[in-house]
Amino acid sequence: MDIVHSHAVKNEVEGLANLAGDPFQYFCQGSRREHLAWDSLCFDYGKDEVLHFLLSNCKYWLEEYKFDGFRFDGVTSMLYYSHGMGESFLDYGAYYNGHQDDDAICYLTLANKLVHQVNPKAITVAEDVSGMPGLAVKQKDGGYGFDYRMAMNIPDYWIKTIKEKIDEDWKPSSIFWEVTNRRKDEKTISYTESHDQALVGDKTIIFRLIDADMYWHMQIGDENYIVNRGIALHKMIRLITATTINGGYLNFMGNEFGHPEWIDFPRDGNGWSCKYARRQWNLVDNKNLTYHYMADFDEKMIELIKENKGFQSTPIQEIWHNDGDQILVYQRSNLIFVFNFSPAKSYTDYGFLVELGSYEVLLNTDAKEFGGNGFTDDSIKHYTNFDPLYKGEKKEWLKLYIPARSAMVLRKTK
Fold it and tell me: Which DSSP letter does residue 271 get?
């Protein structure tokens, strides 16, 4: 459950803003009382009564409704007196310069301790954009006690890339660095998009890629270039994000099949309309539409990860990247992931060094069953080619045909 203990509404009729006639009963005094960016009020975590109230709230949801964990909203805002605004966080000095709210840090530590005492199997996830060290480190090791932290850099990167760069400028080296940029001792939740992109009129990844053509060209046989491009990149973006995780993978409901619209609940700003308070599950069930291609691929992708026991415990090893060719290759366990982000260049006999042996294709974004062109025969086994220069390293060249704007996953068979 998304639990919001980072701020509270200013509404005095429904909220705590002036409970019992005291506007400071739960909230800070002076300039720290209001969160100007959010138009809300900030809890005073230094008061025992506030700690009791918030901690009992955590316990209430666990015991009464049997929730199995929380995503703590707005943790960055809690950690710093500045709420993280105007801070660069470029070096470790930014985390230990006296601008941190010790009372809030104490509360977060207590909240994690309580949650895991009430339900040892419950999980806690921190929504923090600052990268505060130790946030997802166990308390016995000196950390805050969160089980995971949100990898908020990843969805921001994808949206920025889609909005600001043409396809020819997508750099595999930059993409790989972004999806693997984290501390090894902290588990993260990787995701391509969340409610931040799918709520209140913003655009999801698929909608940014295809836009208005989603309303006119999503029927099978009527796809245009924009739709085919969008579906291809949607699969590739999710594949590289999901297969480089070190904690968990998050999907916002409906985005796995490229839901065309946002969610917006009835409110004054939209005339209390229920039009967008929905998910159109019928779209993915309609086999005459292309939505099921993305859903089918997502299902196979998740299945592939789950089938490989210990997948997350194995390191991610970059085998090759070439920003000019827009090719990226990395290995995890006995799986090799090959990406060609080029929008126009397909490569024949593109080679890179791997362990000698034979390899089979397990998943291909370009397969026809996933709405691709089907330019490769994935039933063929691929054998490495001997090179005396690398005999001592026990490596040989694996050469593949890699279609433009596609990705494939191979497994070593022997």
Answer: T
